[in-house]
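Technical annex B. To support the medicinal chemistry partners, we prepared a structural model of the target in complex with norvaline, based solely on the information shown next.
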Amino acid sequence: MVETYKASEIEKTQLKGKDFLQLSDFSTDEILYMLDVAQELKGLQKQGKPQPHLSGKVLGMIFEKSSTRTRVSFEVGMLQLGGHAIFLSSKDIQLGRGESISDTAKVLSRYVDGIMIRTFSHDSVEELASHATVPVINGLTDLQHPTQVLADLLTILEHKGKLAGLKLCYIGDGNNNMAHSLMEGAVKVGMDISIASPAGYLPNGKITEKAIQAGKLTGSQIAVTNDPIEAIKDADVIVTDVWTSMGQEEETALRLEAFRGFQVNENLCKHAKDDFIFLHCLPAHRGEEVTAEVIDGSHSVVFDEAENRLHAQKAILKLLLT
Ligand code: CP
Ligand code: NVA
C-alpha cells in the first residue's frame, strides 16, 4: 500500500538534471515527492509568497501542436519561479524547415536551462532528450501526456485525500496519450485503473504490460474492457478525453461512429460511487465524449485540474532545473 509522503522524508530523491518524458521513468517515491512539492508551491502561491527557485533560468518551449493550458501554465510557472520561458513555434524555428532534432537540441542547450516540447512522435522527444544537455520535459506526444497526469494525481489527492486504494476509470480512446500516462501514473501511486474502449482503440500493448508489472509493486490492478458499465462500476474517479486527438482529424467521422456508446453521461455515471469526481484534461467536446450535465455538474473538478497544471509543473521545473 502506498502512503503519501512528506518532502522531508525523501529528500534523498535526486531529480536534478533528469528528463521528464514519461511517468514510468520515475519511482513511486519520486512521484509522491513531486506531488508534495507541488502542494507546497501551491500553498506559497495562494499566500502570495515569492518562490524564486529558478531566478535567472530560462525554459525553451517547442510547440508543434496547439495548446492553451500547457503553454500558459509553463510560461506563468517559470515567471512565478523567477525565471523566463520562450515560446518556440515549430512554424517559426528552423526545426519546422528541416533542421535536425539533434542540432536543435545541442544549440538550444547552449542557451536555455530546460526544454519543454509538444510534438507528434514520442521518438522525437526521446531523440531530443538524448542530444540535449539540459532537462527535456514532454509537454505531450501522440503516446504520452505525463505533465497532465501529474496534475490529475494532484487534483485527485486534493479532492479524495488519498491516492492508494482508489479506483480510476477511463472511458474512451485507450490508445491515446492520456490513457497511457494515466495507466503509468495510477500504478505508481497504488490506484486501480479500468479502461473501457471500443475494439481497435485499446491501449498500447507494451505500455499496458509494463504498467501491469509496475502495478505488482504497489498492488494496483489494471483492467481493459469494451464494456463501459463494467469499467465504471464503483469508480472513485472518472476520466475521459477527446475521441479525436490532435493529428487525427481526418479520422473524425470514423471515430464518432466507433466511440458511440462510450460517452460519459449521467446514466453511465450512476454505476460509479456516489461521490465520484470527474476529470477531463480539456479541451472537451460537450455532447461527444462527455455531456454538459457531467462536465459542468457538481462532480466535475476539471477547472481545479486545469489550474493544477501550473502547480504540478512548477514542482517539475523546480526539481529538474535547480
Ligand atoms: N490539457 C492540455 O494539455 O491542454 P492544452 O492542449 O490546451 O495545452
Ligand atoms: N488526447 C488529446 C489531449 C489534448 C490535451 C490530444 O492529444 O489531442
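Notes passed to the chemistry partners:
The two ends are 31 Å apart (CA to CA).
The CA atoms of residues 175 and 205 lie 9 Å apart.
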